[in-house]
Amino acid sequence: MEVKTPVMDNRILYVRLPCNPIFPIGVVYLADHVHKLFPTIEQRIFDLGTVPPLDYAFALDQCIDEFKPTLLVFSWRDIQIYAPVGGRGGNPLQYSFEIFYAKNPLVKLHGAFGGLRMLTSYYTELWRNLGLIKRGLKRARKYHPDIRLVVGGGAVSVFYEQLGKSLPKGTIVSVGEGETLLEKLLTGTEFIDERCYIVGESQPRTRLIHEQPTPVEKTACNYDYIESIWSELNYYLQEGDFYIGVQTKRGCPHNCCYCVYTVVEGKQVRINPADEVVAEMRQLYNRGIRNFWFTDAQFIPARKFIEDAEELLQKIVDSGMSDIHWAAYIRADNLTPKTCELMVKTGMNYFEIGITSGSQELVRKMRMGYNLRTVLQNCRDLKAAGFNDLVSVNYSFNVIDERPETIRQTIAYHRELEKIFGADKVEPAIFFIGLQPHTHLEEYAFKEGIVKPGYNPMSHMPWNARKLLWNPEPLGSFFGEVCLEAWRRNPNDFGREVMKILEERVGCADLEEALSAPIETKEKPLVSVS
């Protein structure tokens, strides 16, 4: 008969698996939530992101030996390797394009060696993280044979079906938010109705990730408590230029064809009270933090939430924290002149917009929900309000029905953004979308026969990687050549060089052409995902 640990006798150890030095806000919020419900439960956060790689195993063993947890929670943030910038010892996009598109055998060879190194690194990290989970569980069982293991985080939420095959039997695989799952687990309440499954005991429900998360009332994180259970907190506070994450809302209501946020976080937008967000910022401010990153999927996801954003920004003004800076991912179609003024007044010094394409026709086909004309006008309002800092504009070429004329439209749109903010202030980030499970784009790929149901999205073997790194023909080779030339010409300013070469090769459309998208009576839609 299984022995259950009484709720107040639980000792929870949160282990954040190694990743880039990004503030582990998910684990911090989980521990804070549990403490507010069960203040006598002992908790500890152990962040392997602050540990040298050669010490991972020893440090994990030492932490478990000292704390002797009864509940082990692993957070796994990163898995996929596709990115437009360097990482894991190289640039995965560049290596992929060198292999697939370079005509010079020496360049192909360079890409092959670089790709092999990164492929080895990817699988090494994958096996290492799985090994750390198994090692931690085995070590903890020395002290509590009935210990429960929960594995969650961003990577797990996307690849929960594949990872379940490699995790220890009995592992609770958590998809999306974990607060209510931990609540039920700690109180002995049936929890299988949450977005989770148990390895070896149950199978993930069909479309599990599409189920809506249970809403949680969010209050300001108690950083005095977090500091008491997380000795590495100062690692993130000591650098003055480090951005610390603060969440103002959860959920994204949109249907962008390639994005997995809307299913991981759910379509229901849940606003955190402005007073609580400011109170959380104030605690960090008092610890010397001046740079904040609002970690929402979208800072202003839709026009109906403009008032909430303005209320928050006004309360930041009223708080007297006048020397801060902040950044976020923003849907620039949801700004008003008042919002722009408050953004500048509160110290926004960087933001990202993911328009994906400067062609209104393609924006519509990708289900982005943007009106590009509105985005331009709002950017003018932002500039008029005094914004003079950096804007990162994400472009994902060759997604759906890209053609030379839509490329010309994107060039025209980008040049207009440069006129508004200044060419040196607008940084084009060139992405080629990695095909993600559970997205509309995946359904489209099934329909078009690009991938088949049952494929392994975690496989980065060359024959699979070429499909997952979305750059289909007939324009795939063209974009491959353009990117290779950009890396050769100006690798330190890759995005701007890509836009320059594209304009040299295909030209620049009239701006009005980019902003107009006549309705087609027989438009080829993406398959729907109900």
UniProtKB/TrEMBL annotation:
Pfam family for this entry, one: Radical_SAM
Entry cofactors: [4Fe-4S] cluster
UniProt source species: Brasilonema bromeliae SPC951
PANTHER family, sorted: ANAEROBIC MAGNESIUM-PROTOPORPHYRIN IX MONOMETHYL ESTER CYCLASE-RELATED, SLR0320 PROTEIN
Entries under InterPro entries matching the protein: BchE-like (IPR051198), Elp3/MiaA/NifB-like_rSAM (IPR006638), rSAM (IPR007197), rSAM_horseshoe (IPR023404), rSAM_sf (IPR058240), Slr0320-like (IPR054650)
NCBIfam families per record: rSAM_slr0320
PROSITE patterns on file: RADICAL_SAM
Superkingdom, natural source: Bacteria
Name of the protein in question: Radical SAM protein
Domain Radical SAM core: from-to ranges: 238-472
Key words, A-Z: Iron, Iron-sulfur, Metal-binding, S-adenosyl-L-methionine
